[in-house]
Write a structure and sequence with these properties.
The protein is elongated. By secondary structure, it is an alpha/beta fold. α2 packs parallel to α6 and α17 packs across α18. The strands form 8 sheets. A 5-stranded mixed beta barrel has the order 1-3-4-5-6. A 5-stranded parallel β-sheet has the order 8-9-14-7-15, with helices on both faces. Strands 18-19-21-20 form a 4-stranded mixed β-sheet. The structure holds adenosine-5'-triphosphate (ATP). It catalyses: Hydrolysis of proteins in presence of ATP. Its main location: cytoplasm.
Length: 800
Amino acid sequence: MSDPTSAPEPGQPTTRDLPVLFLPDVVILPGMVVPVELDLDEGAARAAVDAARTTTDDELLVAPRLDDRYATYGVVARVEQVGRFSSSRPAAVLRAVRRARIGSGVPGPGAALWVETTQAPEPEVTERVRELVKDYRSLVIADLQRREAWQVVDQFSALTDPDAIADTAGWAAYLSAERKRELLETPDLEARLERLVEWTREHHAEAEVSDRIGAEVREGMEKTQREYLLRQQLAAIRKELGEGQPDGSDDYRARVEALVATDGFPAPVAEALEREVDKLERSSDQNPETSWIRTWLDTVLELPWTKRTVDTTDIAAARAVLDADHHGLEDVKDRIVEHLAVRARRAERGLELVGGRGSGAVLLLAGPPGVGKTSLGESVARALGRDFVRVALGGVRDEAEIRGHRRTYVGALPGRIVRAVKEAGSMNPVVLLDEVDKVGADQRGDVASALLEVLDPAQNHTFRDHYLELDLDLSDVLFIATANVVEQIPGPLLDRMELITLDGYTEDDKVAIARDYLVPRQLERAALTSDEVEVTDDALRELAANHTREAGVRQLERLLAKAFRRAATRLAEGATAPVRVDADGLRDLVGRARFTPDAHERTSVPGVTTGLAVTGLGGDVLYVEAGALPEGSPALSLTGQLGEVMKESAQIALTFVRSHAAELGIDVSVLDHPVHVHVPAGAIPKDGPSAGITMVTSLASLATGRPVRGDVAMTGEVSLTGKVMPIGGLKQKLLAAQRAGITEVFVPARNEPDLDDVPAEVLDALTVHLVSDVRDVVAGALEPAEDESGVRDDGAAAAA
Ligand SMILES: Nc1ncnc2c1ncn2[C@@H]1O[C@H](COP(=O)(O)OP(=O)(O)OP(=O)(O)O)[C@@H](O)[C@H]1O
């Protein structure tokens, strides 16, 4: 046991007995100055401080109080001052001087507990220690900005002794009492610094992460708060201006939630809607994107995602609807009904519709204007109990019209297909694609290929509109296409469709259609009744024959409308009802007849022949004129906007006539002169091979000087050897011939089967010559020869 009152000899490892003060919760390291409350621990603190007064340097040992054992080390501390805290509780200020090992308890004066203490040896300052001190310093300095570190920095900026530097850890708020105790109990400087550096580095890294997170959170909060404030202000300004709800996002949220909750709502669409509403709620009103999002939401919300109508499966009832809406067209109605029956059956068996002709996928109604294609489409919808929409494709040049513009375009819209479905209000409407022959392919993307995707049952259950960016199921849509000229439909598109042709009506048909459908409808439009206006069949026939010359009934319907407007005016002016619309009175009501049979007049000159052609407007008569040109002109001049094929026909015809002059009874010298072939009307482009025999006849007529008979018309391709080859559109051509007042026609023998489609009424009115050699045409079509001299004179006249 050592002398408790003597101070340690310098340089000696000293052992002294000192009163001890165990402090709970705090760990004091050498170098620290701390106040201690004296009432602490039921007077034990006061006893220890009092006892310290009895030692040489007013010293005592301060050590942490542990739960499970005695601490092995403490610090020797000097009592600097005894007084009161500002709270007036008694306290002492202790300065911790050095580390000391705690030995066993010893008896001592006063109430205090005394122990034997051994001063820790002077630590060795190794190279490693210096490095560690450097690390520690730099870590602490890096931490300068951090509040937790300031006390430490404060303490050690003046220090040079590594041991003292290491013990500044006592101030570090980031070290737990546990760790500080460990530092206290590690007298070995190197080991102590190692631990300290490791823990400081750990803290440093953690602090960095938490700083970063803190900064991000702060920034985010500032931004949201700012936006919130701005929006509140904006709402207030709007309210002042009386502009109402500035931001309908709540409204959208509710609408979306209500909609996606409906049965069978497609999940991907629901997701997309929710995503967009989220976006809307996050974005501010000034953002241009906000209005795009709104428009998009409006579009998607208005689509009939889950709505569909139930098809009428009663085929007889469907037929009855078609019959009620349209006169005649028996074969067309048969085909439509068959198509519907197959569709219904496939649907019942759960079979998919497949593309290709006759597959039942898409109907194509082809024919001239006004024959009822559009109204048949409407009828089909009515027969099935489906909604009906018409999509006009005429003049569509841009793929985006079909498939929509991407949303990033200014004023972007969904394509026509999506708009049609929206307009229909159900997912299984009848969509009439009007005038598919008028779509074009150009540099802006291929309209036809977009349509292919729409019509192809293999693809159209996931049709993707650029604007919606969602899959739309079109597989239940019944597409019906219409076209005037089948040849102008892009091949791949035509391949997917089931073609039904409507060739036009006979005069009898027109009279019946007018009487049963057009007259009642137009009377109603003019607010007239059948008691007020009486229309005779003769008047209708006269209108169909001489006031109009068309395959369909569009013009006829217009003239009826005109007649009824006049009739209404007359009634208003006091005429007595009923006003009679008869053949004689037509001139007053609709003006003069515009079409009178003119073939006789046109063909009275040698070199002019009546041909038959099919145009976009249906069948028509067309005249081929041949004339001789003066010497020195090109051998063959062709005018009338003829296409390549038609020009070749003219050359073939000329070659044939020249080389068979003798057989045809022609003076070949006339044809040695240059020849001009013209096909009026000059403004309309024409093409095709079917005017071949007409050209031969014209040239033969020119060369013989014998005019072509005015009651004759013809159609047929010709070969260089004079064979007559088959042509298309026979029914339309014969209808046109009858309309034009022709009574005899020459047609290719190989077209005979097509005569089955021609209405009996037309065949009754026409004498049809089936020919396979053009010489028979020439023989039958030219007026009989007069005497030799007369012929020459006529020929010369025509040539001049
Ligand atoms: N067989 C018919 N029975 C009754 N009405 C008919 C018949 N054919 C045509 N119509 C009537 O003639 C009018 C013209 O028909 P529609 O507009 O359907 O012709 P379209 O062939 O579609 O012509 P476009 O090719 O110009 O579209 C309609 O009012 C239609 O009801």
